[in-house]
Structure formats: C-alpha cells, structure tokens
Design a protein that fits this description.
Strand order of the largest sheet: 1-2
Helix content: over 70%
Shape: flat
Structural class: mainly alpha
Oligomer: single chain
Number of helices: 10
Number of strands: 2
Largest sheet: 2 strands, antiparallel
Strand content: under 5%
Distance between the termini: 19 Å
C-alpha cells in the first residue's frame, strides 16, 4: 500500500470525524458557529494530511502520476484550502456542514481508486506549469459549483412557509446556520471571477505546452473542447453579470453548467477509461 493511499484514508477519516462532530452540534442547542476556531484548526489538520497524500500520489515518484480520483481529490483539496482562508475573514463556518462530506468522499475515492497514468513529457516546464494551474482552476470551480448548489437549496428554503416551532427537519436546520444569501452570492462571483482568470491561464499555458510538444496550439480532442466550452460558459456568465446584472437562479444554472463541462474535460473521461473500460 502506497503512502498516498494511507494519507488519503487518514484524511477521509479526519474529515468524517469533523463532519460528524458538526452534525451532532446541529441537533443540540450549541451553535455551529461558536466552534469556529477549533473547527478551523481541525480542518487544517485534515488539509495537511490530504496535501501530503496528493504530493505522494502525484509527485512521490520520479515522474508525474495523475488519475481521475487524484485529480478530483486535488481539485476539492484546493477548494477547501480557499474556503479555509476565506473563513479567516468571513464567518462561513456553516458551509463546513456540506463541504466536509464532499471532502470525505473525494479523499476516500482517491484511496480506493489510486490507479492512473504517468504524464508523458513531464520534464517540460510549460506542461508542469499548466498542470498546476489547471488543478487550481478545477479547485476553484469545484467550490463555486458546491456553493451554487447550496445557494439553490437556500433560495428554495427561504421561499417555503416556516415550519412550526420544533418541527424543522435536519435540512432546514443546516440551511438556517448558513451565511446570508447576499453574502454567499458575493462570495460565489468572487470565486468565479478568480476561477475564470485561472482557467484562462490554464488554456493559455496548455496551448503553449501543446505547441512545444506537438506543434499544435489547440489539439482537437475532448479535453480541449470541453475546457473551452467551460471557459466560454463562465465568460458569458461574468459578462451577463456585468452587463445585465445576472444573479439568482440564472447565475446558478450557468455556474453548474460550466462546472459540468469542466469535469467532463478530464475527470469524467478518466473515470470512464480507468474504472469502466479498465484502460490506463
């Protein structure tokens, strides 16, 4: 068993324990927000474990090694790091109730499905730069998509009639401890703006690396096509926000559509090849 698998399993356990602790507090009179500092320290420990796992899994050998589960784990890990930094400035501790289960799942998947492939031409500096920037873009857009899903649930919750005292369900209690919707919308578009910039750099560095290695700026393959479609989707969303003030459900639909295209660009195709078709 490789070191990366062990650390990914440890990270999954750490996230699950922290998530369980938060969900137990949700059912008592203790406010989830009150344990913010302790939660941030515990979350930092889980992030360190997952960071070591990713380093060992991707860079532990002499070459770069990437698989669909490792890519998904790296994307969610980078997104969780961004959330952790944001939580130092804004009280968004309630978001952990939803982000921690996602982090637990991705860390567990990386431990269960460690297969992948060695990245060819990994010695090329432009390719290495492209891979790092691409993972950062995936991480930002992953958190943006999770954030958009949460906002959709919160919007639906706010438009429902209030439940009688003491009869609110577990989902309602989770949504009640989330930050205000306007603050979440501000955070969402800040994430998308930064993510779009990083995604633009991903396309540019990928084109340069492709030209150096193959003589083609933009090879016509599924990864390039889906990445460009995702880039266009997020670009239209930001343009619509600037020109027409897009917000609410329109913005959420465009965010989730752009994220789906981005996932299909790499993670989805690698899942089909490695898990369904059993090809490296």
């Amino acid at each position: 068993m490789s070191t990366g698998i062990v650390f990914h399993a440890a990270a999954a356990v750490a996230y699950a324990v922290l998530a369980g602790s938060l969900w137990r507090r949700l059912g008592t009179t203790t406010d989830v927000q009150k344990a913010g500092r302790i939660n941030r320290l515990c979350l930092l420990g889980g992030l360190l474990l997952q960071g070591i796992a990713l380093y060992q899994g991707i860079l532990g050998g002499e070459a770069l090694f990437v698989g669909w589960a490792l890519a998904l784990s790296a994307a969610v890990w980078l997104g969780m790091v961004i959330f952790w930094l944001e939580s130092l400035l804004v009280r968004i501790d309630g978001l952990q109730l939803l982000l921690l289960p996602a982090a637990t799942l991705t860390a567990a998947l990386a431990a269960l499905f460690p297969q992948g492939q060695v990245v060819p031409h990994a010695h090329n500096p432009w390719l290495r730069t492209h891979l790092v920037i691409a993972l950062a873009a995936y991480g930002l857009m992953t958190v943006a998509a999770l954030h958009a899903g949460l906002m959709a649930l919160l919007d639906r919750h706010l438009h429902r009639p209030p439940s009688p005292a003491g009869q609110a369900g577990i989902v309602a209690r989770v949504l009640d401890v989330q930050p205000p919707l306007l603050m979440q919308e501000y955070l969402l578009f800040r994430l998308i703006s930064v993510g779009f910039t990083v995604l633009t750099l991903t396309v540019c560095t990928g084109a340069i690396a492709s030209y150096e290695l193959t003589g083609k700026l933009l090879p016509f393959d599924h990864k390039t096509v889906f990445t460009l479609l995702s880039w266009l989707t997020f670009g239209v969303l930001l343009l619509g926000r600037y020109l027409k003030g897009w917000r609410g459900r329109v913005a959420l639909r465009w965010t989730l559509a752009g994220f789906a295209l981005l996932i299909l660009a790499y993670t989805g195709s690698r899942f089909v090849l490695e898990v369904i078709l059993h090809r490296g």
